[in-house]
Design a protein that fits this description.
globular; mainly alpha; A middle domain of Talin 1
């Protein structure tokens, strides 16, 4: 009885950590956006998404080293589906987003292209070291694009926040918030994943379903908390940019590095179900948004619906 109570308590502690960490993290990231004159979408797609994708990278690389290809790939693909369907679905059901930034178009199409390339590389049943090089080249292209975007916008003043001298104290405080926030998110995610899996096992959930749902959801919790914190604070661009950037990094960085460490064996189910669902749900996000310049509540309901149907189907397929 005591171990069970302790598990539930640590699960709650993990939840508290990621909620508070997300609060600090969003505050510091938006401060960077205001003080540098960069757009929230760009900050979300670079600094924030890189930090919030670190749990996926850690889990997948460790799984690859241990020879668990299904976990390494499933974690990354499951996170893309979770980020898009669950997180952006919930976010835009609560508050539909109007999209004006040209960065959404570029990063959205880049995301679809990267997932399509991943599907092509996986079609022969293996993502080997040569495939890893291709994915890492795509990562470099993404980094170069972001550097270019930073250079083109860094001198543009933010009209909502006129420039004023930045004190050393301001830099230290926001730097500490950024590091402390992501630290709390990572610790909280670890606690939630480990003890959430234990709770799921006690309730009799199959292990295969746990690996495709609980682990992917757990490593996506930083994105979820960051998005919801951004929603509460009114930073729409930050949350959208975070998800786009995280999805791109899941393909190029997480899978690229994992396959570089150890070739990934790809199941037929991944080729014909998981990756196509990832491409389909991200297409449902990007294409209507480009056409109508917004993410409507109906579109968000469809995104969440696809996610829930996919998760439900796993219990019958596996």
């Amino acid at each position: 009885m005591l171990p069970m109570i302790l598990t539930y308590l640590l699960f709650i502690v993990g939840l508290v950590c990621i909620i508070k960490g997300g609060d600090y993290f969003v505050d510091s990231a938006t401060w960077i956006a205001r003080r540098t004159g960069l757009s929230e979408v760009l900050i979300g797609a670079t600094i924030v998404s890189l930090a919030t994708t670190s749990p996926e990278a850690t889990v997948s690389i460790i799984s690859s080293v241990q020879g668990h290809s299904s976990i390494a790939l499933g974690n990354a693909i499951g996170s893309i589906i979770c980020n898009t369907g669950l997180i952006l679905g919930l976010y835009n059901i609560i508050k539909p987003s109007r999209i004006q930034s040209h960065l959404f178009k570029t990063k959205g199409l880049m995301m679809l292209g990267y997932i399509g390339i991943l599907w092509w590389l996986a079609s022969n049943g293996t993502i080997g070291r040569m495939d890893s090089i291709i994915l890492l080249v795509l990562l470099v292209i993404y980094i170069i694009y972001n550097i270019s975007a930073v250079r083109s916008t860094r001198n543009k003043p933010n009209s909502e926040d006129p420039p004023h001298p930045i004190s050393k104290k301001e830099v230290w405080v926001n730097g500490a918030k950024f590091v402390f926030g992501i630290g709390l998110i990572l610790i909280g995610s670890k606690l939630l994943v480990d003890h959430g899996i234990m709770i799921a096992q006690w309730w009799g959930v199959p292990e295969a379903v746990i690996s495709l749902t609980m682990i992917a959801l757990g490593t996506s919790l930083p994105e979820l908390i960051t998005c919801m914190s951004a929603l509460a604070k009114g930073y729409v661009g930050l949350s959208i940019g975070n998800i786009l950037g995280a999805n791109i990094l899941n393909v190029a960085m997480v899978i690229g590095l994992s396959a570089g460490v150890h070739p990934l064996e790809i199941s037929q189910q991944a080729i014909y179900l998981h990756i196509p669902v990832a491409l389909g749900i991200t297409s449902l996000l990007v294409i209507p948004t480009l056409l109508f310049k917004k993410i409507s509540r109906i579109q968000a309901i469809l995104l969440l619906g696809v996610y829930l149907i996919y998760i439900g189907a796993l219990f019958f397929i596996i």
